Amino acid sequence: MSRDEGTASAKSNRGHLLAHPQDLHCVIFHIACLVAYAGAFWFYKHPKLVGITGPWSRGAFVAASAILLGWISGINVGVNFHNHSHRRIFTSPFMNRWFGRFWTFSGAWPSFFWEYTHTVHHANLLGNGDWTLPKRNADGSFESFQRYVLAHWPWRYMVHLRKELISHPTLRRKALSEFAIFAALWSIPFWIDPIMAIWLWVLPQWIANVWVMGPGMYVQHVGCVQKTAERPVGHSNIFLLKFFNMTMFNIGYHLEHHDNPKVHWSELPELHERLKKELIDGGAHVLPYGYYYASFLLAGDAERKIRFDDQHADYTKT
Asked: Cα–Cα–Cα angle for 196, 34, 98, nearest 5°?
């Protein structure tokens, strides 16, 4: 987006709460995520309402709730807030700042920390400075799927964020103040019931980061190379399953997003169609499914992993 286009867009949205009408979906999704947590807490504290009569039924309720809450939390922060970090969804800076703080705490992230981490990813994509992605083996390939998803959060992130935020003189004050706000919000469930907080707050957030966001980060760039003049479209994988993109804010159009991070998420499919010939000519890796099936392939044996290299039939050179 050019400066003139951005200025025109800002002028056209004066007087509106949202910067783009499609961002209403982002707001609704986030509110629904918080309501889901509140509902789970309520039922946990009122077990008879959902037929919890003993340890087995309570365990089943907790397991099902943690998985579902983790799933939507991973989408809410890893995809939904991700869009907010590139293009603010509110026209008010105050609304963006505080809505962001209430956005990421349900995913165990201070918003400032998440945004900084994602800035590192975009600025150093597949380079030595991109500590958000999997480590490289001696042959240049990514470490295993399982090793990455279990090690990246919070362990590796804590090391790098402490080094680059907490220990950095110019960022330390802001980082500490943002972490204090996050800690105050994040601790709320523990004041209600510490045991409940562990099972219906901490566990879902672990699932969100390790088994939802982690696999997504892995499949987006596995097998890719840094952008060069010779390989301009080899830095990210593209996933075209329509239902997946409809329910995931078009995150499957990841190559288009990295090359055009200011393009609104709702406009990525149209951009993809305009770039189709360029993608075919450049040999972009385009897949007909979504992240879930990609994760299934990459978490498997050598035969399953090879299937990930297959190309969408419509994106081969002719």
From this structure: 115
